[in-house]
Amino acid sequence: MEILILRLQAPLMSFGAPIVDNYGKIQAYPALSMMTGLLGNALGFDHSDFTKLQGLQERLRYASRQDKAGQFIQDFQTVDISKPHMRAYKEGYEVKSRAWTTRGKLENRTRDDNKGENGPLLRYRDYRADAIHTIALTLQPKDESPTLDDLAMALKQPERPLFIGRKTCLPSSPLLADSIQAENLTEALRQTPLAQKADQRERYPAWWPVDRNQDQPKAEIKKPVTDQRDWANQIHVGERWIARGEIEIETQEVSS
User: Fold this and answer.
1) CATH 3.40.50.10190 fits domain 2-74+125-255
2) pLDDT digit string (tens) for 198-232?
3) What's the rounded Cα separation, in Å, for the pair 50 and 56?
4) Which residues, 6 or more positions from 77, have their beta carbon under 8 angstroms from its beta carbon?
């Protein structure tokens, strides 16, 4: 199996979980929708490319190894968009806003929380600081477009700036670390050296898709998750099974 090795490393990372009211929680591993969005962004897809994003998500297979747990932090955010300098304005017949996006376009901001025009918006957002995850990923079937070679090239020269979860989570090093051959995703994680700043452990936490047709490490937990996205309707749907266990690294070498 041909496999790409990604290194997710950043001052802040956010593996998003379902948002409850104004509380943006995170989980321990990157969701399928997040990985699809990350790779789609590198390829130059936008949110209107429903078919391309859906096809990429359906083909994507990956496993994640936690090289460094980092530190959990919570950010309290507040903004009062009722202030004149924060609100959309008209220039002739055109409505403009001061909110820029990664797509290079202005975004209109309005209040839609039914709390009236006055008062700040309050919310909490969780992050992992100084964490490192190693990802082994492949595509099935492998011969469709985009190919793994297309993904590798896009990660080397992405069409737009990349971020790990939220827009503030910029990677501190190139995401593509290697391309290897392995029997399966967890075997690829065993073969891949640890990051330089990895935690010192005998075995490392890992998450991988449950596949009854392949030999896989013993899992501590197997559970269904809803982390796929209906890209046309912008909602999370479906169910897939993932396993959580620990992996012992074959090599003691440390990669950059």
Assistant:
1) no
2) 999 999 999 999 987 666 778 888 999 989 999 99
3) 10
4) 122, 123, 124, 125
